[in-house]
Each structure stands twice: as structure tokens, then as C-alpha cells.
Amino acid sequence: MRLSRRSLLAVPAALALPTAAWAQEKVVRYGIPMTDIPLTTGQPDRGANAYQYTGLTIYDPLIAWELDVSDRPGKMIPGLATEWKVDEADKTLWTFKLRSGVKFHDGSAFDADAVIWNLEKVFNKDCPQFDTRQSAQVRPRLPGLLSYRKSGDMEIEIKTKTVDSLFPYQLLWFLVSSPAQWEKVGKDWNKFAMEPSGTGPFKLTRLVPRERAELAKNDAYWNPKRVPKVDRIIFICAPEDSARSAALISGAVDMIDGPAPDVIDRLKQGGARISTNITPHVFQYHPSLVEGSPWTDVRVRKAANLAIDRDAIVKLLNGLVTPAYGEVDRSSPWFGKPTFVLKYAPDEARKLMTEAGYSKAKPMKARISIQAGGTNQTVNEAIQEMLKECFFDIEFKPVDLEALMTGWRGGAKADMNKDVSATNVTHVTSDPFYAANRFFASDQVAPIGVNWSFYKNPDVDQLVVELKSTFDPAKQDEITARIHAKAVDDAVMIWVYHDTTARALSPKIKKYVQAQSWFQDLALVEM
What is 27-241+503-524's CATH number, 3.40.190.10, 1.10.238.10, 3.20.20.105, 3.40.50.300? Predict the structure, then answer.
């Protein structure tokens, strides 16, 4: 793709924002790869990527990720909960002590009542504040939760369904919004979306659906380390890679996610800095393993993994990704020692397909749901051609991101997925729960979790029980590695690459800490 003068002029109108009024302010204009601004009510939609936009800016979780380091993976750290512990006598019972002195943006106090109210809004369909949209986003991310109660003004207790040492990782996704503000706007989540109130480092000041969201610095933020260094940040929807890149080149924005791979050199020539880092996030295909699916034969799934030239995909994306040889990177303590080695071996792939009853004249036919447009579709089309050489006849069903996510949460047996036999939802692999349990345990099928394929391996299920029962991090790593090795040997997915989450920054951005995470902390950006 070449960015001509015409393409620069074709940048969406939403990017052409006035700057004169901001002369005395530090304002970051951020081009994001979204067709719409993610949900602003507390639990963002549009995937995990949205948490850095309207999640961890406006709101806070009880337990947070450490995102101010870039040379190692971050750890879990206190958020709105200052400490948490499991009861030694009953290891399904967790106690969370809450942070005192925190205020929501509307001035109301954060306390145990607010946390319980927020748990109710996503778990209790009969309560007044229950919100279907928020529940759909976060409930599958907290599959271990059984019940909750207030145990003090600044303390809550949560019971898990079973002993679950990984439960704290689940709470990283749970964000807390203001009960008082919901009352003030007439108990209407649509109105709340336009005037939200959280405890985060930014406040939403303007929302234009499908166009932009403007956030202002929260001077009274409770954590001095995360008080923003800029006055405002403006998220601008620019779903096409070329439009975002053109906007940065023309000066319409100051930073973008996912620059177009083939204009990286031009961006650098214009003074842009390309920021990347190791990221626990994987691009893969998740095939259905339910009866009648063409993917139930492990030889077919292994053949698909052997048919993909991952180095060619890395080259196609200008080195902005790294090859995937499983759910996690080979350097991860959770990789283990699988006997099936992912590599580019088309002859081996064709041999397996022949054994499974397929040939050039009789290819395996499959339809896969993917996200429409952009680089993602370009990659899918390249892989489609590679698979064709190994007796696969793949058809894609491009859909909007949120529709793709809804289908993912629905599982392979859902009516909405009856016309596809695999899906292409990239996902986070940031902790043992996400790297192993969430996708490979048979108790994580819909509607509980996102074992989309309905994969079931009794050995894996037993290892998951062991994993959830141990509170020793070293032992957790060892068990997770064994689970991962079995999943690779069963070729549960067709893995392609790991992201490095490239961002292009204009010279105006003086400091940006890119954590080794799918989450990023925009409160740390400096101009």
C-alpha cells in the first residue's frame, strides 16, 4: 500500500480535529483500530484491547496489572483492593480489603457497598442495575465466582465454585463504576455511558459514538504514580490501518495502534517512533471439535499447523509479529515439551491430509469467522492460499469485531455459529488461567467460558484441577506447561503468530512505557 496525497486527504473527518483551542493544553490525539468507541459504562466491549481505552483510564479494578515496567512481565498489584487472601481453612473463600479514601468522579465514596453493587450489575439478572451488555463482557472472564458478600465497610468476601488459586487473575478484568452516578442519571445505562463515573485517572468529558471519546485528567486521582502527565487524551476511531497511518503522517493524530506494516519506513522517515514489546497475545484459529465438524480429526488440525509458513507471515507484517509455536511463546515457562512441533512442512501436511481422506481433487471444506477489514483480513487471505496448497478449501466469513466476539463467547454449538466450523479471535495469554485453563478445560465451554471448540481431554481436566489447587507459583508454572504441551500435541488450535503490539508515536510523544502486556497504562504518556 502506498499512501498518496489522495489517501492522506481521505482520512476520516473525525481525525480532522481543531488544535488552536488546545495551545495551552497537553492533548494526545490517539488513533485507535476500532469502528466504534468501546462501551464506557464500566466493562468495555470490543475485546481485551479496549481495556486500555475506556477501561483502565476511566475505571479501576480491584486487582491491577503492573504496567509501568517494560523489561519484564508485570505482576499483579493492589488496585482498589489493598490486599487479598484465601482462607486457610476454606480455600474457596477469599477476603478482599478495600482501599480507603477513594472517590468516584462524581464525588461519591468508594466502599464495599459499591463493589457489591457492581458485582450485582453483572451477575444478578433480577437486580435493578443489571446490565446485559456489561455482563456479557465480564461474566465469562470470572467463571470461578460463586457468591459474594459485604463483610465490612471496606471489606468483601468472595466464594469460588471450587478451590481456585487462579481466581485473582480473573478479577483483573472486573472494573468498578459509580452507583451514585447511575442513580443520578435516572438509572439508565445509556445515559450513564454519556456521563460515566469511575475512580480512574481520567474522566470522560465527551463521547461521539463511532467517532471519538475525549477524556480529561483526574487531578484528584488516588494513586500519585498514575496521575496523568497530559491534560487530555482523545480516542479517534480509525479502523483501517492505512487511515491511521495517514493520519499520523499528516499530523492529525499523535499516536496510533497497529501502523500499516508497509508504511513503517515512511513513518520513521517522518520522525515517528515505532514502539513494540513482547506481548502475551496470539493470533490463531480455534476449530470446532463438536460432532460433524471437519476438524475433529487430529490429523487435519496438525496438517493445518504444518501448512502455514509463519516466517512468511512475519515478513508480510514487516517483522511486527513473532512466529507462534503454541498458545504461548517458546520462551515462556508455560510452553512445556510438546511432542508435536509446529513448523512449515507442507509435504508432511499433505501426507496427513491424504491419510485423513482428502486430496487436491477432494479438499477439506471449512468456513471460518474472521474480523472484517484491515491487516487481519490480509493475513487471513495469505494463510488461505497456504492451506489451499495442502488440500484445504477455506472460506472466510468476515464480520464486525463485536459480532465476532459474541460468536466466540457463544461457543461452537451456538446457533449463531452453525455456518462456521472455526473462528479467528486473537486472545490474551497473560497468566496461567488465560494460557491454559480458559481455553482447554472442559468446564470452560459456553456459556461459562471460551473453550469455543468444546475440547475435552481427561488428562488436561485432571491437570487443571491440580493447577487450581496449588498456590505455589513454581508448581503452577510446571502444571501449566504440562497442560500446554498436551494442547499442542492435540493441535487444539492452529497457531500463527504472537503480537508485539506495535504503536507509532509522533515526536510530540516524549515518553511512552510499553508494558509486556495486552493492557497498557495511558496515564503514563508524556508530551
Answer: 3.40.190.10
